[in-house]
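Narrative summary of target 7.
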Amino acid sequence: MTSRIFQLLYNYNLNDTQTGLRGIPTSELTWIVETNGERYDYEINMLINARHYNLAILTIPIKTLYFDNNSGSHYSTVKDSARIFLCLISGLIQYSGATIVSGFFDILSFFMLNSVVFTNLSAPVRIFASTVIARMISSILNYSMNRRLIFADTGKLAGSAVRYYILAIFLMMTSYSLVYAVSRFWGVNETIIKLIIDIALGLVSYQVQLRWVFRKKDNINSSFPPGA
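Modeled conformation, tokenized:
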């Protein structure tokens, strides 16, 4: 289950996220020794940081040997599984930091435009104009932070920028359509409706950016053939 969650959140397909047998290049020791955590949560944090630095992970099949029916294991099914899950979620929050920051500016800009600047316009025009201008402001910040800080993209700027703004336009139009549609049946402030909808769209955006916008062709998990 941990492997499947890790693949969903970080796009690394690993059969075993908890193996203690890892070969680490000396060039990566600087951040390895600074990684937080102990025992099982340290192993997860190491993998999350490896994803952040866009490192390729090669897996080699090994035999699993338990002595004395694994009586020497100190793994607590509930306690340690909970710690691993919390590490996975905390890593996701770190990765989503740019989305949270830019989302704050997007919501704030939308509120000011929708509630103060464009109050005299009709609802469809007001919501549309507020959505477009707010998204233009926040998207520049979001793209810059995601490219450099979150996904560590070092590829050509044009490629990821085109993919990013295709996604941004799609999400913007989806946000506008849903906010306008829901506001006609739910008598609350449009900013609150937009906040709820954009949180859901933000989760979708993260996955699309991870797997398409800032995709890496050279970080695909590889395996040596049996016996290598």
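DSSP finds eight helices and two strands in the chain.
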